[in-house]
Amino acid sequence: MELRGTVKILDQNYKVGDVVKAKIIVIHKMDTGFTKDKESGKTFPRFYLKEITATYNGAIVASFELDVATSQNPVIQFPFKVTGPGTLVIDFVNSDEDKAQKSVAITPAG
Amino acid sequence: MQRRSFIKGTFALATIGLLNPIFFRHGLSAAEEAVEMPFTELINDYLSGKTAEDGSSIMALNIPEAPENGAVVPVEVTINHPMTADNYISNITVLTTKNKANKAISFDLTPANGIAYLYVNVKMGQTQDVVILAKSNRGKIFKVSQNVRVALGGCG
Predict the structure, then answer these.
(1) Going by C-beta distance under 8 Å and a sequence separation of 6 or more, which residues neighbour residue B18?
(2) Whole-number mean pLDDT of chain B?
(3) Of A32, A61, A74, which has the smallest distance from its Cβ to B156's Cβ?
(4) CB B133 within 8 A of CB B77
């Protein structure tokens, strides 16, 4: 299954040395394995987004281990310090080992 | 005629299986079983013998006390702690207390984050506490919790 997600930088007009926040949104179910379909009575299998890793210019700045108490379509915000122009690369892995990668350009002003 | 429709049906099923591997893969995946994660087990695992300090003086929470819907509860935490190379927050973990599976997220930080901050959406099956644990690289553990009243539960 193709994972759909996006990443963006919440701040604008940031400079080198500033701390900016990145926002990650992933369209993904977070099935706990306990819930049942009301019509068929079948249990939805445990199926969730497992890992998110953020890499900024080759160095890992944030890594997340998610579990089923996160809401469906997880939204995550995290800070990082801008050290120069480059890209922030986000890798997603779900419980079926499906992978996806998104990136956003970091362009500090000045 | 009956035989004809039987063959047609078998073919249709086989095609679904071929074209759409997810259709069958779910049934085979190892992660499918429901795993109960009781809160006490998770927190003991996190503390691993240490005691948690009260983090309410340095941790600022922004969680609605009575969200409209338990399926999406925004949890925002800012920790007023230095983030220097030898003294920083290395992990923030968000747990709930009364869901069947209580672990929401574990966030590993580095000094490159600048500040210790996390925003995440959590789901809650019933009225319960959100517990936020933070670990510093010097081995200190801070804990803070807030009760959240949930009228309409998200799937727990």
Answers:
(1) none
(2) 82
(3) A32
(4) no
Decide: B145 and B132 in contact? Cβ < 8 Å.
Answer: yes
| C-alpha distance from B82 to closest chain A C-alpha (Å) | 14
Task: Write down the ipTM of this complex.
Answer: 0.89
Distance CA B156, CA B154 (A): 6
Q: Which amino acid is at B154?
A: G
Q: pTM (2 decimals)?
A: 0.81
Per DSSP, the three-state class of B40 is: helix
Contact A64 B26 (CB under 8 A): no
CB contact under 8 A, B119 and A77: yes
Give the length of chain A. Answer: 110
Q: Do A77 and B96 touch (CB under 8 A)?
A: no
Q: CB of B102 within 8 A of CB of B38?
A: yes
CA distance A22 to A11: 8
Chain A from 41 to 70: CB within 8 A of any B CB: 43, 45-48, 56, 59-70
Candidates A100, A76, A99, A104; CA nearest to A89 is A104
Q: Which residues of A23-59 are buried (b: 16+ CB within 10 A; e: fewer)?
A: ebbbebebbbbbbeeeeeeebbbbbbbbebbbbbeee
Q: Say how many C-beta atoms besides its own lie within 10 A of residue A109's C-beta.
A: 9
3-state secondary structure of B23: helix
Contact (Cβ atoms closer than 8 angstroms) between residue A67 and residue B99: no
Residues of chain A with pLDDT under 70: 1
User: How many angstroms away from the CA of B132 is the closest CA of chain A?
Assistant: 13
3-state DSSP assignment of residue A65? strand
